[in-house]
Amino acid sequence: MTARPAPGTPRPRPAAVIDDHVPPFANLGWEPFSRAAAVAIAEREWRLFRSPVDDDPPNTRPEPAPEDKPERQEGLWQRVGEYFWEGLDPGEKESPWTGMHDENGQIFDARQDGFYAWSATFISYVMRIAGARDKFPYAVNHATYINLAAAGAAPGLRAYAPQSYAPVAGDLICTGRDGSEKIKFADLPTAGSFPAHCDIVVEVRPGQLTVLGGNVDDAVTEKHVPVTASGMLAGPDGVPVDTRYPWFVVLQVLYEA
Question: Does some domain include residue 113?
């Protein structure tokens, strides 16, 4: 039996260290990468943003005044900055961004916040802090890890058509947006990037998923997604059950625990 090291004894530094921006507990894999951790971290961030829920169709809520955007409020713009700093790999030009600053520390116009979108960065942050290490392709856009999963090039992800796999807590569901609403699973992997959005599943109930997404209404926001009796996002014909969002791929996350 191997003796347990005495408290305070430094552990050997693994070869696959990804990012020194990240706390040691996540960077060095102190605990297994688990669904429970990813869900708990996502829910913690949702509570930090005051637990908003938006089940309306997309783009139907009025744009708030700049001073009312959660991502620009004290305590929250800094948190978005932590998503960028810890969620992205070192050297990415976006890693210094916050909810209201560019890489030079300049405040950007709130009307231009779409250029500084952080929904994929939020997913990257959740996976990183949950201890994914080299099992997740951290990125500032969702298409990067969607395409890698579809190509079989992401060691910690598997891509499934929405009618072929029932997502469970900790998995990701993805939809096209801003002109990419017609993209289908059969189109993956695409030749280039495309606008998309992914949410993390935090609860599964009969007929419904509860999911959380970053940069939804400028916050971490909850929505509820209808599914079939067998838990699929789409029927056998591939048509999504949800009439609001064209969910086209499920990303199974291969957790260690």
Answer: yes
